[in-house]
Amino acid sequence: MIALLSPSKKMRAEACGTGAATAPLFQGKTREIVEKLQQWSQDEIKAFMKVSDALAQENAQRYRQFSFPLEKHTDAVRALYLFDGDAYQGLNALTLSPSAVAHAAKHLRILSGLYGVLRPTDLALAYRLEIGSGLSVAGEKNLYAFWTNTATAHLEEALSSQAERSILNTASGEYSRVVNFKKLGARVVEPVFLELKDNKYRKISVFMKRARGLMVRFMVDNQIDQLDHLRAFQADGYSWDASLSTNDKWVYTR
Q1: Nearest residue to 19 (alpha-carbon basis) of 86, 62, 84, 78
Q2: What pLDDT does residue 18 have?
Q3: Which of 32, 69, 174, 211 could make an SS bond with 193 (beta carbons 3.0 to 4.6 A apart)?
């Protein structure tokens, strides 16, 4: 079983976490993106990313400071600890046990517009680049076209060493699009987290994101490598609702 997570815009810039580190697998392709963005002015980055002056300046500087190989860069952070958005606050990687980190290394992958796919142990630099941004690179019309074959082939290889050929898709719809699930031919389940408000179950984005991280935390803490065992997930008041769930969408309510 492989779990998928999206990255987050909020990142830690300082080195943190412990354990083994690995080199990102697709640095050649990452370098193509970086070299294109390094040619852009701060104003061009601001217009393309639709960000403030301060964020445009920060990201222009980030890309100027990129150097390869990434694992030799003094500011590189293991991917498991790099991201700090809502899902990653639910995951709370800095408090994971060594055995949980080891389980994550085998069973978790983070999808990325800049890196394609990151393993938890891969060293990476902080960045901003949405996979749905429409950036054209190397003759490809967007980052989906640029990364889909690479990401899918990597997941095919990762699944080949798993006891169960299945995917827990806790990534967002935007990032899930980069994977050709049909080509993988694996069982795919997407968890959905709902809140009871005014006698109706509703999706609330910030809670859903955090709950995705909580589910990955549950998976690695309990060394889970089979999808069906995740029906037992309970955290922050969520529990599996069989009446609302389908074969490929599992609903958890609170």
Answers
A1: 78
A2: 67
A3: 211
> Per-residue pLDDT tens for 164-217?
999 999 999 999 999 999 999 999 999 999 999 988 999 999 999 999 999 999
pLDDT the model gives residue 71: 87
Q: Is the distance from CB of 62 to CB of 127 less than 8 angstroms? A: yes
Among the listed residues 62, 181, 76, the one whose alpha carbon sits nearest the alpha carbon of residue 124:
76
Looking at residue 15, what is its pLDDT? Answer: 62
Cβ–Cβ < 8 Å for 124, 79: yes
Q: How many residues does the chain have?
A: 254
Res 3: pLDDT: 98
Dump the DSSP string for the chain: -EEEE---S-B--S----S--B--TTHHHHHHHHHHHHTS-HHHHHHHHT--HHHHHHHHHHHHT--SSGGG-TT-EEHHHHB-SHHHHHHTGGG--HHHHHHHHHHEEEEETTTEEE-TTBEE------TTS---BTTBSSHHHHHHHHHHHHHHHHHHTSSS-EEEE-S-HHHHTTS-HHHHT-EEEEEEEEEEETTEEE--HHHHHHHHHHHHHHHHHTT--SGGGGGG--BTTBEE-TTT--SSEEEEE-
pLDDT at 221: 97
Residue 17 has pLDDT above 90, yes or no: no
